[in-house]
From TrEMBL:
Lineage: Eukaryota, Metazoa, Chordata, Craniata, Vertebrata
Domain (Vacuolar protein 14 C-terminal Fig4-binding) ranges: 509-687
Gene3D superfamilies xrefs: Leucine-rich Repeat Variant
SUPFAM superfamilies per UniProt: ARM repeat (SSF48371)
A Pfam family that the UniProt record links to this protein: Vac14_Fab1_bd
UniProt subcellular location: Endosome membrane; Microsome membrane
Annotated family: Belongs to the VAC14 family.
Keyword Ribosomal protein: no
GO BP terms: phosphatidylinositol biosynthetic process
Gene Ontology CC annotations of this record: endosome membrane; PAS complex
The protein's name: Protein VAC14 homolog
Record key words, sorted: Endoplasmic reticulum, Endosome, Membrane, Microsome, Repeat
Amino acid sequence: LPRLVREFVAQNNTSQIKHVIQILSQEFALSQHPHSRKGGLIGLAACSIALGKDSGLYLKELIEPVLTCFNDADSRLRYYACEALYNIVKVARGSVLPHFNVLFDGLSKLAADPDPNVKSGSELLDRLLKDIVTESNQFDLVGFIPLLRERIYSNNQYARQFIISWILVLESVPDINLLDYLPEILDGLFQILGDNSKEIRKMCEVALGEFLKEIKKNPSSVKFAEMANILVIHCQAADDLIQLTAMCWMREFIQLAGRVMLPYSSGILTAVLPCLSYDDRKKNIKEVANVCNQSLMKLVIPEDDEMDEAKPSVTIPAEPTSEESLSKPEAVTTGESQNELDVRALNQPLFFPCSCERIQVTLNLDGIVQVLDYHLSDTSIGMMTRIAVLKWLYHLYIKTPRKMFRHTDSLFPILLRTLSDESDEVILKDLELLAEIASSPAGQTEEGHVPSDGSDVRPAPVELHVPARPGQLSSSSTKGLECSPSTPTMNSYFYKFMINLLKRFSSERKLLEARGAFIIRQLCLLLNAENIFHSMADILLREEDLKFASTMVHTLNTILLTSSELFQLRNQLKDLKTPESRNLFCCLYRSWCHNPVTTVSLCFLTQNYKHAYDLIQKFSDLEVTVDFLTEVDKLVQLIECPIFTYLRLQLLDVKNNPYLIKALYGLLMLLPQSSAFQLLSHRLQCVPNPELMQTTDNTKPSTSFKRTAASNIDYTELLQHFEKVQNKHLEARHQRAGRAEQLDRRVVL
């Protein structure tokens, strides 16, 4: 047969050569008899050898029958087919490349063949074909990619190994740029990375590592946008190796592509945020996720607040340029299936970060805020994730306040609920965010209009000031307060925040008891302490729940007297030198009247000793309860604290402070024989020359500036207000007692 074929070649008798090949194919290789098929395969191989370099002219006729035999049920015959094709390819070399796809398809099937001899033969053929591809510069990569994309999803281990080996070979060929087609096969590679075989996983790791090296070397030719959602999917994989690898890729993508990744921020955050709460068993994933999170956050810049969301800022030929095309990636949330994400990834506009034209990406916050809101609302989410969410929101309010305030009404309730979190660190971040919302100029609505929430609308302007009351301050003093530099104007959300915070304390008494002081002290650090006390006092003045008002006033008073954060405010109240400080005192006093003992302590703090004495005289008309005596006991303990050092020293000046001593004696007379009684009694025994305590109505007032300044306050009106508030409390107690008595009667009946 070889001699006959050589003669035909010498005679250039093409028709006879084709006739010989046709007979070998139709009558032998495709025969029903197995031995005839074996003979036909051997004959085709011999014919190819005889043709030599001319075999390339007849490759289609030579290869097709051999490939058909790859599917034969007889393993021995499949081996003969593999051997025949090896000889055909070995002779033809580069001429077989136009037929590469059919050869690859056949080999991918033999790679998973159960017969070891067939598998061994296919490996020899595979190596030969790889050598040919490596040597050639005519490989049709474009035509091959669809087949590779199809075969890469095979679940057979041997087929997967075969696919990875070919990807590694193609990646190593300088003339073949497989990176351009990486989006087509990246998802399949991550699927293979989850294979049960350690060897295959290792091979896939190597392949992905090589691709990542190439991406770092040539970022300008990488289609980051087309692969973003593929990574988002695999960053959420249950397999640790897949998740870690995808997260490492995501980290590099964010750092290399920069703002090109912003349209996919919501999907990235969906994948990254849960990883931040991983324990030490997944420490590596957690660390990489943290870098991704920080890098993505840095991509948001102040210019994003100025861009018009209605106009697309990226225009690329043959791609959709509407807002819809840019906002698509933002819809990637945990509710979407992987298939939807995969389809979405293939439909995204292309971005080229290193092109000569500077590409700007419009930041659409809707998807980001939706993801952040979801993770903050989910009580099962770990502490570190919640902290990261709050940091993100804070960062967005700093960088893009104008756009973020459109979402404030929807975020505000969840931020208030977060104050009940178990973690102090979460509460601190939450307070920082709420403080930023309350103080940001971007939150100031037009004409002082308070944000939506009908129950929280304040009738007065949003600037914080004490409403003018008859006899309280002159008009000039009130005007001076409104524009006081020590009381900076807050935005519309500040007053809303204060109202809702007090509502939360009222509905969650445990929160007030456990974290109330902590929350208010932190707010005093983050915002203006005077504003906070001013506004809370103003709100509590109209509080209908008198019992809560009394408890809240007691809490605020304790903070005012004991917290180091309020040192400046205490000094301001202690002197009452300015109209603003006197106005603040009057505002606090009116609310402090909900609690008689705290009102006296406020007078002690502000050195209004005569008024304190007058108040104590009114205590005889009040219902003295155990709680009342307990508060008096605590006040005595406070007098012995460093806060009231100046008060104790003033006891040495009996002549100028007679009402201070009288007030202290009044407290002493209220107390039963207890440790507090003994403590105060011993203190008063240290007062020098008690005879000087006697005073008359003609006692000269102090010439100190403080007393002169405080004389502008109408103490008579304040005393009347105190009596009015206490009468309300007395009526409320009687009503509660009456309801309790009625309930008891019903129970008896």
